[in-house]
Amino acid sequence: MGDRVIADEQVEVAPGVRLYVERRPGEPAGSSFVLVHGLASNLRLWDGVAEDLHARGHTVVALDQRGHGRSDAPEGDYDLDTAVADLAALVGLLGLDRPILVGQSWGGNVVLELAWRRPETARGVACVDGGIIELAEWFPSWEACLAALTPPRLDGLELGELEARMRAASPDLPDRAIAAGLANFRVRDDGRVEPRLARPRHLQILRSLWEHRPSTRFPTLATPALLILADSGDAARTAAKRRAEALARASAPRLRSRWFAPAHHDVHAQFPGRVAGLLDETAREGFFA
Question: Which of 84, 130, 134, 258 is most buried by a 10 A CB count?
Fold first, then answer.
């Protein structure tokens, strides 16, 4: 099979909008996985999972969503409908036959929504600390959500300062995950950083996420779903996730869940081998059928 990676592939999913994609071709007997990152993230956070799944014989596609990473960043259309349409178009253009869609955080909501709207697109979905995110249950109003989740202004920091902040905030993340997180920023000519995802676009996606109601999707979800959930030690947040998990398990026709504890929200970057092993095991036993 080899370690050949098709890199720097730009796929036009909408007029004038190209997504950056990395594809690792696997063995015929393997499954196909599409890895979708979260809000203000990029495909580099999936590197460990992608390499592990590929080593196990699977075809793996990782992408930067519009406005993120090395993908195009048009002025408008940063909402869930557009993200779902982009992903559906990408799957079709790459000729993938009902892959397993894996999304982290906001990406989990994206893959869940695509599978619910178009069940013929995927034979399974896996939501990594996402998919059950229903911000309206966490915040009573959009204004409250905006106040709590508006990202801090990091423009003007030097790269070393930003790295130090990341390491202090997430000491449990390996060096590779920190490096991937730094890829969410570009370095300007003056040596200072700025987010690749512009703030207005970030807030448009956040508003769309606040409006999404994944709990209404699970009762009629025709696609098998796996929830991979992280207990970070935040008791209130974990309790909210467990309530959402219980609701999904009680209503979805075919759903299972697995918790990682203690674990970071970016559990896929923290424990890539464990996450890839769970995805491989779940696929090989036929759950995503």
Answer: 130
DSSP 43: G
Q: Cα dihedral angle (269, 270, 274, 277), rounded to 10 degrees?
A: 0
In DSSP terms, which residues pair with 227 in a beta bridge?
127, 257
What is the spatial distance between Cα 254 and Cα 139, in angstroms, rounded to a whole number?
29
pLDDT per position as a tens digit, 12-31: 999 999 999 999 999 999 99
The residue assigned the tokens 């730009």 is 10
The tokens of 196 are what?
């690749």
Q: Which tens digit of pLDDT belongs to each residue from 73-87?
A: 999 899 999 999 999
pTM for the whole thing? 0.97
Residue 61 CB neighbours (<10 A): 26
Does a structural domain hold residue 19?
Answer: yes
**Structure letter (DSSP) for residue 151:** P
Q: Is residue 143 one of the residues assigned to a domain?
A: no
Say which CATH number the domain at 251 has.
Answer: 3.40.50.1820
